[in-house]
Each structure stands twice: as structure tokens, then as C-alpha cells.
Amino acid sequence: MYTFEPDKTVLDKTELTLISQYWNACNYLAAAMIYLQDNPLLDEPLKSEHIKNRLLGHWGASPALSFCYIHMNRLINKYQLDSLFIAGPGHGAPGVLAPVYLEGTYSEYYPEKSETINGLKKFLKEFSFPGFIGSHCTPELPGSIHEGGELGYSLSHAYGAAFDHPDLIVTCVVGDGEAETGPLATAWHSNKFLNPKTDGAVLPILNLNGYKIANPTILARISEEELLNLFKGYGYEPILVEGSEPQVMHQKMAHALEHAVNQIKHIQHQARVEDKNGRAKWPMIILKTPKGWTGPKTVDGHQVENTWRAHQVPLAGVKENPDHLAQLESWLKSYQPETLFNHDGKLIPELQAIAPKGQSRMSANPIANAGIVRQPLKLPDYAQFAAQVDAPGKLKISNTSVLGEYLNQIFMDNPNNFRLFGPDETASNKLDAVYQSTQKTWLADAKPEDSDGANLSVNGRVMEMLSEHTLEGWLEGYLLTGRHGLLHTYEAFAHVIDSMFNQHAKWLDICKHNVEWRAPISSLNILLSSVVWRQDHNGFSHQDPGFIDLVTNKSADVSRIYFPPDANCLLSVAEHCLQSTDYINLIISDKQKHLQYLTIEQAKQHCKKGIDVWDWASHSEALDTQSQSVDVILACCGDIPTMEALAAAAILKEYLPNLKLRFINIVDLYRIQSSDEHPHGLSTSEFEQLFTQDKPIIFNFHGYPWLIHKLAYKHNASARLHVRGYIEKGNINTPLELAIQNKIDRFNLVLDVLNRVPNLEGAADGLKNKMQQAISDHLNHAHTYGMDSDNISNWQWPDTNFEVEVNDK
Fold it and tell me: Where would I find the Xylulose 5-phosphate/Fructose 6-phosphate phosphoketolase C-terminal domain in this sequence (predicted)?
């Protein structure tokens, strides 16, 4: 551990003066953008009309953020570093916007905010102003890959950016309030996954300013010994920089940051030149500064600086209170803006000269606009991995095991820009074929017994950690800096990343609609396996398909949901998702063995359509979608619901051969939505061609049934649409028993058809009795033997005179 005292040999007198002035300029702009809508350089006495009507923004963390930013700039110039800056404190945008504007990047992206007096006025006014930018480091901010709208993700984003960028140093400022969140707490362990030979580096800076919005922070109220031991325990070399006197702190920080950067270079030299593999003891900085540093000391008799009162707007009554207005003017003038900017509003030349230039600026680093540097994945022809389907519903294999073979080839073809992320479940989710070409990233200690199947390697590209938060953060950081990846997890636990998913979806949506200069990035691909319907031993706690509902709440411009019914459809969907950009693609596919239905060509066409009639499972007279010669539509979405729906269709074909049943399978969930609401949706005429205008629809769905009603509400079908899905019934059940409890099973589906198709007369009565008896018999069998009967477990689509071709309709 190092506690850094001032070292006057690091910054000479001239450098100290310039960096102090530059920081004053940053602090002036940070405060001014919270308050001012006019009089940007105080060229006249400050008046009430110069103040915004609503004071929105956060001052407290801003000075420390710009302090870190400009000190990193000095080292970028000195060592020609490639660097990004990530601001963890959520509302600390003024502390980053200010240096980004001062180094000229902001004006390059937004010429109307030029480095002139009028441009500066616009820049200040439009911060946290209706119709313009928010108080986070939003997507509109050049150089940002992390908004901070929700605390906790900065460090995992930083490590995700560093993976496979060997020359990059990501400076990540972590707020001490943010450090209390679960995602951030687990992200400290990311240092065990950073390979100094092939990856870049992350330099965490914990800004210990002591307070949250209304409380002290935990890490600020433990002893120094305990604090340092915490980070030593995480495996870092902590460097403590503490104080409040600016001139002294500039010398301390310059010394500390230089030591940290040189330590990073030493670690990388040992790995890359001396070939020393293993986990490094990376540096991190603990920066202890006052909350609201350099701002008002007291307001109305209350201490402000170095208390929670500095968190947001220290002087809130400036529009009405002349004393507050005078204090604000005094505060702003304390930075001496007249010495920092010329009369035209531009930073004086000697200060401009100390900022990096061109793409060396952290705000102009191309990887922060990842679409510029992104290279498409080299995708093999997925047909070579296809399941050999000679007839529908005969072959039974694991769909995800086939996907694993495809992913393995992707790893071989893309050795430096693709990673697989999952919480200790790569083998469990049947994706372990990837271990033929790569292994799990592991730089912590390994034991001899690990060689027997643990698949650990310092050079591995499979990222496993039992924290979906960290995995999701890594993947987002990886994608946001130009690469590709896939996250897989158990369906029930995807909710762990609900809010992270929300933040990324909002980022993509803002980029698509508001930030034209951001180039498209690789889509965020999530595979949910070990699904609700196959929790034979985990029980009720593992039964929750609700992540699907969450995704449907997001913008239609960014969200996509796919339910491939078999392995060949899964291959087709995966290929589509992995080459797409600017979407969040959710794929739901169970890992257990399932029946296969479509050849690879049929699967390709089926997935392209997203929804289609399966001729071989339908009555011949119900196939013509231009005709209304249909008695009932049996629709399904999801691999298990598809199998149960097919089994129901087989029963109906056997017992009611004249029933005109149309069987529809849905791969793309949004196809059932109206085209008015989603670009993948069906028009009214398309919907009525498939589902008719008036016939009953029995819909067997993977998730909660009311979701289908929500999506299809604009179609004139609510009175005839009957949806079966998961209704929170279950425990330790056999597969069929769980299906029966939620009524997605074949027998209940047959009953649904019989109860909703008119004019079946007495033909249905005997079949109803058979179905009710079958339900009772199979439940008794499960409770007696602890498993489903063989004719359920080994069920296949019957050998009858049904065509196997998928109509190209």
C-alpha cells in the first residue's frame, strides 16, 4: 500500500499552475451548467434572470471527476496512452462534460455548442434542460460508454471494455455510494479475469467523498486500516490520496497516478516480454476528497462542503434569495473565469495546449463509438451443424448442444473479438462443445484436480462467474467497445439483471433516435435455458418466465424475442442475432433433449417468416390461408408448448379426423403484435389470413398467458383467443405433471378445443372423458413412480399420412 505525499519533482511549477487553472475551468463550467442560462462568463453582474428556472444537476461528485480526468490527460500526453474514462457517480456528468467541452470534442460533435461565447451559453443552458441532455453521462456525451443512470455497473463495464484491447487503460471512477451496490461489490473481482498479456488494464479510482444523497457512505466511516485491507483482500494494490488543499492534492494525484500507470506497464511487460503468466496485483487509487470540493463552505448557517448537502444543488434559492444569488456569484468568481477564457468564450491557448489532441482525447477515442471500429463476426455456415431431420417429431436431441457446436466454430474463426458469458452453467446449458477450442478464463490459483474437466486457462474466452450482474456488465462493456458476445443463464435468474437490461435498452433507444453520430454496435444477445417447464428437481423457486414480459416493455425499435422450437431453428435464430446490431435479442431454448421437427432449409424459411402454418400437423382442408374453411386454430410458441400442442393435434387427428385444425408455430414472438406497434408485427389482413376472422384460437405459450393478450390486443381476436401458459402452479413435478398443473399439456389442450369448437355434438363427449381420465392417470403415475410414463417420455409424432414439407406461405 502506498500513501502518496506531494512530490514536487512530478509537477514543476509551470505544470502545477496550468493543471490548477485547467481544473478551475472545469469546476467553473460544472457549477455554471447547473445554474446559468445566460451571462456565461459573468461579463455583467449576476442577476436572477441569468439563472435557470429549474436547478437540476449534481455538484457533489463533479470536482473529483474532472480532477481525475485532467490528471489522466497529463499521462496520456506523457506516455501516448490509449485510454477511456468511465464515471461511476450517477449524476456527476458536469465533472465530465466540462473537460470534454474544454478539449474541443463536444463542439466537434455539436457545432452549435462551439467554443465561442454563444456556443458556451448554449452548452451551459442545455444541461438538464427540457429537450436537451440529462445530468448523467448520457449517450449524447462523446467518449461515454456508461450512463450511470443506475449505480453499480461502472467497474464491470470498464473491465468489459478492457478485455481484448491490450493497449487500453480504462480509468474508472467509482463513487463511494455506488460502491455499496451489489453489482459493484462483485465487480471488484473482475481483476481475477484480466489477462495482462492479451487484455488492457482497468485503473479503478474510488472517490471517497464521504456522503450519499442524505447519509454518510459506509466505506468513508470505517478505519483506514480496514479500508485498505478490504482492497488488498480483493487483490489490488491500493494507493491512498487524501486531502483538500488543491495545490497539494494536484502533486499527490500526479505522483499516485504516475506510479499506477507505471505499475500497469510493468505488469504488462512481465506478461508480454518476460512471459510471466498468472494473476497480477493491479493498482487502484482511493481518492479521499471533500464532497462538493471547492464549492460553498456553508449556506444559511449549515455546513455544505464535505457534507451530504453538497450532493445536488448547494444553493437552491438563488432565484428568490438575494443572499444566495450573491453567494453563487462569489463562488463562480472564485475560479477567476476571466483568466481562463478569452472575451470570445474560448479557453486561453496555454490551457488548450495541455489537453491531448485528436483521437488521443478520451472523449474522441474511436472505441467509445464502437460501431466505427466494430468488425462483423466471421460466421460459419450454420447448416453444417444442422440436425438431420428425416421426419418431423422422431429424433430427440438437445437443441443447445447443437448451438454449442456452432459457437465452438465461431470461437475458432474469431479468436480475439467474441466471448461467451455465463454463471457457471456452460456445461449445464449443454454449450460445452466450446471447450474444444477455448476454455474458461481463470487467473486465480488452480489445483491439480482442476485439470480433470474444469477447463480453466489464463487464455480462456469463456467467462464464468456466479454473478449475472458482473457478467452482464462485462458483456455490455465488451459490446460498447466494438466486440461480440452471448450471455446465457437459467431462465428464472435472468431477473437479476432486469435493471441492467433496462439501462442498456434505454441507451440503445436514445442512440437510435437522438444520437446520429453513434454507429451501430453488436446486439446484446441473451439465451435463457433451463426453462420454467423443466424444473423437475429445483421446484417452484426456479419457475419464472417473467423476464420475457420485461423485454416486451421496451421500445419496439430495440427489443426482439425468439422461441426456436428445435435445434435447426435455434441455429437460424442464433446466426441472425449474432450478425445483428443495435438490438437486444432474447432467445428462449431449453437445454434438455427435445423432438426435432424441421430440416435446416425448412427451419431457415420458418425463422425468416417468424410465424407459419405447419402443414403436416394441420388438417388438409385448413391449410389454405385464403380460405376460412377452418374449425379451430391451435397455435404454440416455445419448445415444450410446441411439443404438447403437437401431441394434442395428434390426439385430435386420431379421434376427430374430420376436425379442420390449423396448426401455427411462432418463432418470433412479436409477430403476433400489430404492425402498428412493432416492425415485426402482423397487419390486420395478415393476422386474419393466419388466424381467420372468427374461429377459436387455442394458444399454448411458454410464458405467462396474459402476455399474449397484451401483445395481440389490437387484433380483433380477444373474445376468441384462449391462451394457456405458466400460471404460478408447480413444485417438484415431473414434466407432464407441471404442464398439467398449468394446463399447457396435451390433454387440457384437447379439452380446450372440444369446449370451444361448436357443433361437435356427441363426438366430443367420449373424448372429453378420455382426456379427463388421462389427466388423472398420469398424475397418479407421477406420484406413484416419481416419473412420467414411457408413452409420455418417449412420445413421437405419429407415423401417418401427413406431409413433412413446410409451405412457403
Answer: 591-797
**DSSP annotation string for 16-43:** HHHHHHHHHHHHHHHHHHHHBSS-TT--
**Residue 313 to residue 299: CA distance in whole angstroms:** 11
Helical spans, DSSP H, in 566-667 = 567-578, 600-609, 639-655
Q: What is the pLDDT of residue 7?
A: 67
| Domains of the chain and any CATH numbers | 2-357 (3.40.50.970), 382-593 (3.40.50.970), 610-793 (3.40.50.920)
**Is 81:166 a contact under the CB 8 Å cutoff?**
no
Distances (CA, A) of 251 to 28, 77, 287, 773: 21, 17, 13, 83
Residue 207 bridge partners (DSSP): 175, 287
Q: Taking Cα atoms as reference points, which of 658, 676, 670 lies closest to residue 714?
A: 676
pLDDT grade for 629, boundaries at 50, 70 and 90 = confident
CA pair distance 522, 377, nearest whole angstrom: 9
pLDDT tens-digit profile of 536-553?
Answer: 778 888 899 999 999 999
Any bridge partners for residue 87, and if so which? Answer: 173
Calculate mean pLDDT across residues 211-227.
95
Check pLDDT > 90 for residue 366.
Answer: yes
What is the model's pLDDT at position 325? 96
Which pLDDT belongs to residue 297? Answer: 96
- Can you tell me the mean pLDDT for 760-768? 83
* Assessment of whether the complete model's pTM goes beyond 0.85: yes
For residue 422, what is the DSSP state?
A: E
Q: Is 358 strand, coil or helix? A: helix
Residue 62 to residue 577: CA distance in whole angstroms: 39
pLDDT band at 645 (very low <50, low <70, confident <90, very high): very high
How is the chain split among helix, strand and coil, in percent rounded to 5?
Answer: 45, 15, 40
Q: In a 3-state reduction of DSSP, which class is residue 413? A: helix
pLDDT of residue 109: 97
Give the pLDDT band (50/70/90) at residue 107: very high
Half-sphere exposure of 764 (CA within 13 A, CB side): 13
Q: Give the pairing of strands 593-595 and 396-398.
A: antiparallel
Residue 207 near residue 170 (C-beta atoms within 8 A)? no
Instruction: Tell me the mean pLDDT in the region 711-722.
Output: 94
* pLDDT tens string 278-335: 899 999 999 999 999 999 999 999 999 999 998 999 999 999 999 999 999 999 999 9
Q: How many helices (H) and strands (E) does the chain have?
A: 25, 23
Alpha helices per DSSP H over 134-245: 154-162, 182-187, 224-233
Asked if 409 and 578 touch (Cβ cutoff 8 Å), the reply is no
User: Buried (b) or exposed (e) across 506-520, using 16+ Cβ within 10 A?
Assistant: bbbbbbbeebeebbb
Alpha-carbon distance of 642 to 46, in angstroms, equals 70
Phi, psi of 493 (to 5 degrees): -100, 5
Across 763-783, b (16+ Cβ under 10 Å) vs e yields ebeebeeebeebbeebbebbe
DSSP H stretches of helix in 103-233: 105-109, 117-125, 154-162, 182-187, 224-233
Give the mean pLDDT of 712-740.
Answer: 94
